[in-house]
Amino acid sequence: MYKKLNRVIVKHPNDAFISQEHLSKEWKRFNYINEPDFAKAQQEYEQFLAIIKEHVGYVEFLPESERVGLDSLYAHDPVKFTPKGAIILKSGKTLRQPEAEVYKDFLQEKEIPIVGELTGQAVADGGDLVWLDDRTLLIGRGYRTNDEAIQQIKEMVADQVDEVIVVQLPHDQGEDECLHLMSIISIVDEDLAVVYSRLMPVFLRQMLIKRGFRLVEVPEDEYIRLGCNVLALAPRVCMVVSGNPFTKQQLIDAGATVYEYDGNEISYLGTGGPTCLTCPVERD
Ligand SMILES: NC(=[NH2+])NCCC[C@H](N)C(=O)O
């Protein structure tokens, strides 16, 4: 979604990464590219947060919890917001599954409505659920989100959507690597999307074009630096990880305002861009 963001939930690296010692012990288990530097992560996060705070009225922080690990930094994944409230998900990455319970407690404490919760064998990550517009939900079916979850989510949002469109995700680098639908598409305005077409099914690309989207095509080297993961703060106002000059320039050429933050430690090493760091609770 691309409408003006009014309220978000995030998690500070102080509460997710905890300390350098903790990072040293855990980064391999969580399949990070390398060990993040804690002090640099804190600095990067301040930069990231400053941009968020400049544009979003309410910013709320998930608490530190012993039940969850490094990936809890990526506050987008354990829940998905619909206009009526949150769906509590269950991650396709087993290590991340406890994040949902902590989130649920947090939402209940804040009296934020919950519309449903995945049950049984269903698994899904927030990164696989993309609102194309108010009434259209795309769901990526890959290693992180299964058919059972898609069925349950369809039932939960039936009264709020016209269409749920399932997008088959490719195997690409395999089960252990994080590939979400949000890795290959970001909607930054009603007619502007950032895409990595090489991993996109043809029907999706054709559908976007047919619906009038202009596509910003991310080159391979910038896809690897999470250039395709762009957070819309408002229509055509967005945020990218620095080091993606080609994508950034194309966004500017399309009339967008682009903010950048350095995200080597908080984004690149854990494979989580600005959309993954931010859970959008409410947009206009
Ligand atoms: N919405 C996202 N794309 N989140 C990225 C999460 C990255 C995290 N390391 C994981 O593997 O789950």
UniProtKB/TrEMBL annotation:
Pfam families: ADI. One of its GO terms (molecular function) is arginine deiminase activity. One of its GO terms (biological process) is L-arginine deiminase pathway. This is Amidinotransferase. It comes from Neobacillus rhizophilus.
